[in-house]
């Protein structure tokens, strides 16, 4: 069992006052975000902090995790945690509650795309498939389980998970990723049906394509000689909504709504944030 390395950034300075508006506030909330060192997790941590929360980001990438916590400021701290190791998740939740007295929001966001080659399911490498499932599925279930352990007795809490447009439509991403992301709305429905009676909400977000390190790495494999600018343009071109492209902040704001009291009646839901991408494909134009 991998040992959990925990180091918190020294926090002697008083937290700056939140610039929270009355709507979509996370004032006073304590949130834990997996995969918080980069991309959507980091952007969401920033959004929660700007609206008054304290955020514990956890990630298997130690260097990026400490760097992200520093950038996010005094309301953020970092713990190393591999979501495939249940003991890591358990310790991250326990340590958060020990340090902050509670856990209001658990965001199971860490994920990988996994290998895209070979593209045919007839050639699927089962070891690679298992690896994607361990992070994208078992890691999320483990996060739900350990958050529920503290939220059920507390009688409140909000659990968020990240699915994808690839979990709504087939054929947008490699098979392992698509299969893994289809499981997320299912586990959300299953858990929501039980957690309702305890006052705990659980929802997932299905983002469209955002130019995070994950997507840029993936596109780099498809277009090995393209410049970063060209890759970013490719992502922009995936938006169906005139005049808009999906940015990290769009996903972070959806998470903020669900985590705030304004989302208090929303549970068991898959919030698609894709600028019409799935509507467009379903409509078959
Ligand atoms: P990212 O690569 O920028 O961030 C993912 C983070 O997860 C990284 O910091 C990585 O170190 C961490 N991580 C990976 N394996 C881990 C493990 N075993 N334990 C702990 N942390 C681990 O990617 P992102 O685009 O921000 O993706 C975040 C989530 O959003 C993923 O679940 C991804 O599938 C999903 N998503 C992304 C997009 C997009 O367009 N970027 C679209 C739909 C869904």
Automatic annotation (TrEMBL):
GO molecular function: oxidoreductase activity
Residues annotated as transmembrane: none
Domain Ketoreductase: residue ranges: 29-187
A GO cellular-component term linked to this record: chloroplast
Keyword Chloroplast attached: yes
Domain of life: Eukaryota
Name used for this protein in its record: Ketoreductase domain-containing protein
Lineage of the organism: Eukaryota, Viridiplantae, Streptophyta, Embryophyta, Tracheophyta
Protein species of origin: Brassica campestris
Subcellular location: Plastid, Chloroplast
Protein family according to the UniProt entry: Belongs to the short-chain dehydrogenases/reductases (SDR) family.
Keyword field: Chloroplast, Oxidoreductase, Plastid
């Amino acid at each position: 069992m991998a040992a959990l390395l925990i180091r918190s950034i020294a926090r002697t300075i008083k937290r700056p006052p939140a610039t929270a508006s009355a709507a979509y506030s996370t004032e006073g909330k304590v949130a834990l975000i997996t995969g918080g060192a980069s991309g959507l997790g980091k952007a969401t941590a920033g959004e929660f902090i700007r609206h008054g929360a304290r955020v514990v980001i956890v990630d298997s990438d130690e260097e990026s995790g400490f760097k992200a916590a520093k950038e996010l400021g005094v309301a953020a701290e970092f713990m190393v945690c591999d979501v495939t190791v249940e003991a890591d998740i358990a310790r991250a939740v326990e340590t958060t509650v020990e340090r902050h007295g509670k856990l209001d929001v658990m965001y199971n966001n860490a994920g990988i795309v996994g290998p895209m080659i070979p593209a045919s399911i007839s050639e699927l490498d089962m070891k690679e498939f298992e690896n994607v499932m361990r992070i994208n599925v078992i890691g999320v279930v483990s996060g739900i389980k350990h958050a529920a352990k503290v939220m059920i007795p507390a009688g409140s809490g909000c659990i968020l998970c990240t699915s994808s447009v690839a979990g709504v439509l087939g054929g947008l991403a490699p098979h392992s990723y698509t299969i893994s992301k289809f499981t997320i709305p299912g586990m959300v429905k299953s858990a929501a049906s039980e957690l309702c009676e305890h006052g705990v909400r659980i929802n997932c977000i299905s983002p469209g394509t955002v130019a995070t390190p994950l997507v840029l790495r993936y596109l780099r494999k498809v277009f090995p000689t393209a410049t970063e600018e060209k890759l970013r343009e490719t992502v922009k071109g995936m938006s169906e909504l005139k005049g808009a492209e999906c940015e990290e902040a769009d996903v972070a704001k959806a998470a903020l709504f669900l985590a705030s009291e304004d989302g208090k009646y929303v549970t068991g839901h898959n919030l698609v944030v894709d600028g019409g991408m799935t509507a467009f494909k379903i409509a078959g134009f």
